Batch of 2 targets.
Target 1
Amino acid sequence: MSILVYIEQAEGKVKKTSLEAVSFANALAAQTGEGDVVAVALGTIGNEELAAVGKAGAAKVMHGAESKLDAGVIQAHASAVAQAYNLIGAKTLVLAKSSLGDAVAARLAIKLKAGLVSNVVELPKTDGGYVVKRSIYTGKAFAETSVTTENKILAIKKNAIDLKQDGADAQVETFDVALEDADFASKITSTERATGDVLLPEADIVVSGGRGLKGPENWGMVEEMAKILGAATACSKPVSDLEWRPHHEHVGQTGVKVAPTLYIAIGISGAIQHLAGVNSSKCIVVINKDPDAPFFKAADYGIVGDAFEVVPKLNEAFKAEL
Amino acid sequence: MKILVCITHVPDTTSKIQFTADNTKFDSTGVQYIIGPYDDYALARAVELRDQASGKLTVLNVGEADSDPTLRKALAIGADEAIRVNSAPKDSYFVAQQIAHYAKEGAYDLILMGRESIDFNGGMVHGMVGELLGIPSFSPVMKLDVDGSTVKMAREIEGGKEMLEASLPLIAGCQEPIAEWKIPNMRGIMSARTKPLNVVEPVSQETQAEASKYELPPAKGAVKLVDKDNVAELVRLLKNEAKVL
């Protein structure tokens, strides 16, 4: 018996959040005695990249290499993962929460008759029962959820566990995915993706700007800070509503929820809806000229000052130190 | 075209989250309930599509009687009729079974809902309903146009979006900017009073992953302020104290 992990790729590289899911499954298997961890990867990915999934804690990678699976066609991916799950006789599937992961997991919950818990923040309690802690109310609370089914699916939140990096290379095997035309009834006609940048939901450091920056032409210093720190850029809702920045950068209640190690907010007042998107961050820095900005109450560190004065100086200080 | 929009009845986004009864129940004291913000986007787009295609728009909620004002609001925004499945929404699977049953009964062409509820944030019900009904499911959908039986959508992915084409029937979990939220006008509010709101019983009691106990995150310590003329100090703190660089 093994735990199966569904790993996602972007342009042939395994996503870091998927590697975290592998490490989570590795720790879970050690706790429950569910054998080893098998990862399932779909589409075109190099063997070396797949073997490296072993570092995060997988013993084996099953590779459904059909190029038709390069694109994240939801039904086809759900069908392929179900086949891998049944092939190895798994009882637990672990995956990282993501745009594709969520969509695939939900269909798998029905296919596999599996109890599904989303936004899992730590390893389940498995001594007598199966109790999973999940984040609810957009990071404002937690719930303990009792899973009563034999098959289980855990969709884990970023930073639920430290990434394991000392495992041996995984054994990579290809497996034949039986695909039906119905799995491809919907077509992805094109994809627009910011390339080369750090993706916001996966970033360890996020630099975010608000309306205090006065206009899209002033984002240069935000982008510069992100570049120095290897961070992703983000923004508040008014900024994306005004189309100063693209919607996929909007962090908050109705936007992306991030859980980075460090979140730097520049010129954002910190409305409750914005905080809902960032309250899982480990450390929050707020730069705002209004000392009464509510964001300071949610921050670990703060600077009261004009962004146009503080940020360039801070960029120099980061450069000097890093 | 027959459209079904599933809505959640959830605490307003500014609500203080607290629990009672030894942390086993949500404390609704002083809490204002709303249509889930993502569901509200789905509803707004559904009203536009219904008006274009002169179809029929039904809203559905799985909830107890306190959801009725929320359903009336959806009727005031423009839905033609409402269905309430009379039970607390116990878990995603429980809710998905109810929706799948009544969606099949009503033979809807298009089923829309929010990408997730803002209380439990699971974001799983649309995919489960899709699989239960054997139709495609998409989420989070930020653009959706219907032309005959062809549906063109944009789905948000990490760092961008993908354009999709599929055929009716299908189900989509929606988010902004699919449409602008609609505010009910006086005529809508008046007509909502007489539109049908049918209360039906759950078709299954089966659950798989119910929440049993709640807790709040630990309180945050006070912010440490750094002088704006000494930004290097902030860098040192992030590096040596917080250890996040």
Target 2
Amino acid sequence: MRRVTKLAAAVTATAALALTTAACGGTSTESSGDKGAAIAYDVGGRGDQSFNDAAYAGLQRAEEEFGWEGQDIEPSDGESDADKASRLKELARQGYNPVIGVGFAYADAIEEAAEANPDVTFGLIDDATVEGDNIVNMVFSEEQGSYLAGVAAAKATETNVIGFVGGVEVPLIKKFEAGYVQGAKATNPDIDIKRQYLTQPPDMDGFSKPDLGKEAARGQLDQNADVIYHAAGLAGQGVIEAVAERDEWVIGVDSDQYEQKTLAQYKEHILTSMTKDVPDAVYGLIKSVEDGDPQSGVIRYDLSADGVALSDSNPAYREMTEVTEAVAQAKEDIVSGKIEVRQTP
Amino acid sequence: MTDGGMPVGTARKRPSRTIDTERLVLAVGGPALALAVAIALTSAVLLVSGRSPVEPYVLMVEYAANADIQVLIVNQATTYYIAALAVAVGFRMNLFNIGVDGQYRLAAMIAAVAGAAVTLPPVLHVLFIMLVAVLVGAFWAGIAGLLKTSRGVSEVVSTIMLNAIATSIIAFLVLPDQFGEQRGNNLTTGEIPRSGWFPNLDAGPGGEIYGFIVVAALLGLVYWVVLNRTRFGFDLRATGASPSAAAASGVDAKRMVFTSMVISGGVAGLAGMPVLLGDSHTYSLVFPAGIGFTGITIALLGRNHPLGIALGALLIAFLDKASATLDYNGYEKEIATIMQGLIVIAVVVSYEAVRRYGLRRQQQRVGEELAAQSGAHHQNLSKGASA
């Protein structure tokens, strides 16, 4: 009986909604409490084997250490800044602190939410264009790590042809391309670099559809590329698969893909990975809030503090001393400022 | 895909009020039935997965009681409404403009560039940006119209392809080498000066409602008047119902196809304006995409009628925005997506069911009237004979 009336109420209220806009006084952003940290994902959400998962890994680590259960929320398709701002404010209202937006898409929304919630710390990954006392901008020098990937590829290739597969052609991924190309050319000026992007924004399939990555990688392999670097999130799995089928080398991205369980059957072909330490950045921010001394302002994660790095978990890679030495030398030169890496190709 | 109402051309006199009420019941019955079926099916899905079949609705309605969420819903509905009107213009003409998505994005992008490039007094500036958007949208849809009239290319195929081409053109134009500016990891077209902003309506604690909602409502009114009260509208509906019959009565069908495609595109061009003029004031990588496709759903749902579309837009926007709360309460917000899908299927099925029912009723009534008439006629005849 009660169910029926509830349903009836729901249906009538839905219809009535059309007529009663803004009739109610309250807003969804009132009250507060302490429930730990929350992250709001970019397109793709949890399970992208990449960026969003890395942020989640940081949250999980904090959950284990501090014993609360955080929140992680995915976006919906075609949403605007207002929806993102609403999501962040709602998380803050529910008592989550810090609230972290994954990806530059959250920039304007974070600015608005941070202004409305001065007591909550907001984290923003991959963007430093908006500022505030309670905003922490976590930015990474992807071009530096990618430079090392370029050096490794140029040293490891036998055909003198290497490849780059980018997910979606956005400025962020172009930083990967820029560093990679510069590193490879610096190592061998005559090297032939095949570059391809899978999709154009706002079509984000290039970060999520492995078949697109597979096709692009096969094309580059057909053109004699024997080392391919991918910066394509989940679509990069297709790249890894295609390269493994032809028994060549692939360079992973974001996390150490040699260690990733879902990729275990291809691991011997993963030469190295350009890691971006999003988990540590997220965990660091949460810890600072838990410790009562929240971070603030722009925090840059670069080669010098291993914010970005080239992994060496594949034993085959460690045995290639010529490659590892060149990479170590390049790293030293970048950290010392001898080499400046470009952010645009 | 034509209007589910009366067939065009049989502009017979309305015999009585009872039939009017019946038409109204039939018109409302379709969507109501569809909604009920969709809710029932969604509840079934919830039950099967071991959840409460009612709580998600209650949560969503409670969440939507907040003023700020209502503002989000109304703003989203404004955008949806314009996109759906654009689709509906095509539907009335039996044209399936799937290209609304590309048309509004390209229009918004170029209008944003143009708006940021010029300096004009307040009202003129907004009108200028809107004009650019309409022209770009009309131009992009016009290509599909031209291909259809000159080469017989199906507009379904050409508009889908034009969507992909628009995506690539935008991606090219938004680069810093062309018209774009890089801002962090984002690409924008630069901010439109304040004189080119459309003033928003203050909704108190809920935030601001897009002032463009007024334009959207006016568009709906114009759409209704033009279609139902002008020669052009009649020609358009006639051509949609039967191209050959319309041609026989002197309508240039090809011209109608082209014109309605251009109008559809022009309206589509405005779909990005609520966000552009009322909120973002720039076109960037995070500009909302995919609204054109939602517009198709809503035009179907609203039976191409401006009021129906308004209700449809509000319903879909409600499901979009209120579903956010499900994630916080242990449900998946995809429940709302399932519901949207079910609504579309249910709408198509129930409209067809209602249409057949209406047709049967009509046949029955005509049969009865004919029987009565011929009976009377017969009587008259026998009377004459006996005299």
